[in-house]
Write a structure and sequence with these properties.
By secondary structure, chain A is an alpha/beta fold. Helix content of chain A is about 40%, strand content about 20%. Chain A has two domains: about 240 residues, 3-Layer(aba) Sandwich (Rossmann fold); about 40 residues, no CATH class. The chains are: A alpha/beta, B alpha/beta.
Chain lengths: ~280, ~250
């Protein structure tokens, strides 16, 4: 069970003066069960790559396989494979369109051809996953919700499709810390419960460090770093800096303290690690 | 509440706490249904004051794409002054000065839609500066930007405040950005829940967290260490202060 990109290249506006190569010979395997963060500068090719994972864009060269099916073909098999990949775009609340929350979340499953009972149970499960009570919210208009709630409805719409691979493009952009944390808690619960793959595109290194177990760093249409999150932040500091990518705040703070002579090991990633290291260094535990 | 000329005020609070509504009162995009809002002594409920208020206080919004009106950067910056009837001869120097402040002079003849998010946002700021405002209100100006764009905007805003003595009201969800302010206003359900210097506000870690917000990482680490019985001053909120406290 995996998504596999085999030597994928993509060029925007090919054969025009505006031609721009967005992806260059990308080879990548994403296994079900992985939680991947994709980071990189604006224009590095993150979004273009994401759109290849579920066939929104087809490669100019190379192939994309979902569970070993080439998704660019027109066969029903390929359509089914594409359906396994759910995509939550940036600011997904802008894509809400139905009159009630139920109808909005039900759109995907219905399109997939499920029976009405199945649709209802999918909608129920999806809403409960994103922390919205079915009886309270199902018949309400999605347009009267707060930003964070609307985003949850949009995510529920994708979750209701029961994807094996869930792509989230900056799901926390513009949300306050509380809404952001609860959305990530829900994504995490979903990830644990369904053993799906989560692919998170983010500019927040804290999120990447906190949640993902694998980190992909993109630059100029290529994957330049691919590794375990902690390992990447530890061993590729200089490279990340050159790419204009930040490191998590805890790492930055650890650096400052180390410069001032505190003995802090260099595997600090999260705030709690740092607190522990400080206590050790000061002999407080 | 009041904000003085030259102050840098950050406004924080969860979604729906009233931050943006408050900010929109500062340049009379909204007028109070009760109470009174004075901008440089001008009552925003009196229609004859509106033009002058809006030239005194400029606004920059979250989405850079929604704020650009012209097809060339310098024309976009000139839009404001043209609109209020600034004489032609004066417009050019104003536009040039505004672009220089935000470091966008070399892009004067470019098409805005081909710029990065951070650059577009700086053009939006230049458009406000061309009106020679005394105060700029920025409503989450970095929310849609990548880390590089974010740094550009933060540096620009700091410069406006420190070098040009422009009053800044800065709404944000990023506590690291709020640290730059002289004063922080914390909103909750349409009310001011707390206000003070960054040190005063962020030392109340528990209270801030209960409000659904977070504190800068150094303040959080300091609070954790205090909780385990160590003597760390309450107003330790920046990395430097924490380093100072730990490495004497």
């Amino acid at each position: 069970m995996s998504i596999r990109l085999d030597n994928v290249s993509y060029t925007y506006m090919k054969k025009t003066p505006f031609e721009r190569t967005a992806l260059k010979e990308i080879t990548l395997t994403i296994e079900k069960g992985e939680y991947i963060a994709v980071i990189g500068h604006t224009g590095s090719g993150k979004s273009t790559m994401m759109q290849h994972l579920n066939g929104l864009l087809s490669p100019d060269a190379g192939q994309v396989f979902v569970d070993d099916v080439d998704i660019s073909s027109k066969r029903t098999e390929a359509k089914k494979a594409r359906n396994k990949v759910g995509m939550v775009f940036q600011y997904p609340e802008h894509q809400i369109f139905a009159e009630t929350i139920f109808e909005d979340v039900a759109f995907g499953p219905r399109n997939k051809g499920l029976s009405e009972e199945e649709v209802e149970s999918q909608v129920k499960a999806a809403l409960s996953f994103v922390g919205l009570d079915y009886d309270t919210f199902a018949t309400r208009s999605p347009f009267q919700l707060s930003g964070g709630q609307m985003r949850r409805v949009a995510i529920a719409g994708v979750v209701a499709m029961d994807p094996d691979y869930l792509i989230l493009d900056e799901p926390s952009a513009g949300l306050d810390p509380q809404s952001r944390d609860s959305i990530f808690r829900e994504i995490n619960a979903l990830y644990q419960a369904r053993k799906m793959a989560v692919i998170l595109v983010t500019h927040s290194m804290e999120e990447a460090a906190q949640y993902a177990n694998r980190l992909l760093v993109m630059a100029k249409g290529k994957i330049v770093i691919d590794g375990e999150s902690a390992e990447v932040f530890q061993n590729h500091r200089e490279a990340l800096k050159e790419l204009g990518v930040d490191v998590p705040q805890a790492i930055k703070l650890a650096d400052i303290l180390r410069e001032r002579g505190l003995q802090i090991s260099n595997d600090v990633l999260k705030t709690e690690d740092l607190v522990k290291q400080i206590k050790l260094a000061k002999g407080w535990m | 509440m009041s904000i003085e000329q030259g102050e840098f005020v950050a406004v924080i609070g969860t979604n729906g706490s009233g931050k943006s509504t408050l900010a929109r009162h500062f340049n009379a995009l909204l007028c109070p249904t009760e109470g009174i809002c004075l901008i440089n002594g001008m009552d925003s409920n009196l229609e004859e004051n509106l033009w002058e208020i809006r030239q005194t206080v400029g606004m920059v919004f979250q989405n850079p794409d929604n704020q650009i009106v012209a097809a060339i950067v310098e024309e976009d910056v000139a839009f404001g002054p043209e609109n209020i009837g600034v004489p032609q001869a004066e417009i050019r120097p104003r536009v040039e000065a505004a672009l220089a402040v935000v470091n966008m002079t070399e892009y004067a003849k470019h098409a805005p839609h081909l710029l990065s998010g951070g650059q577009k946002q700086r053009v939006a700021i230049a458009g406000v500066l061309a009106l020679l405002p005394k105060c700029i209100v920025l409503d989450e100006p970095t929310a849609m930007l990548d880390p590089k764009g974010r740094k550009e905007i933060v540096a620009t805003v700091k410069k406006l405040n420190k070098e040009k003595n422009i009053t800044v009201v800065y709404i944000t969800h990023k506590m690291e950005e709020a640290l730059l302010a002289d004063k922080i206003i914390v909103m909750k359900q349409g009310k001011i829940e707390m206000q003070g210097t960054p040190g005063e506000v962020f030392s109340r870690v528990e209270q801030i967290k209960e409000l659904g917000l977070e504190v800068p990482i150094a303040a959080e680490v300091a609070a954790e260490l205090r909780a385990s019985g160590q003597q760390i001053a309450e107003n330790t909120i920046t990395p430097e202060e924490l380093a100072e406290a730990l490495c004497q």
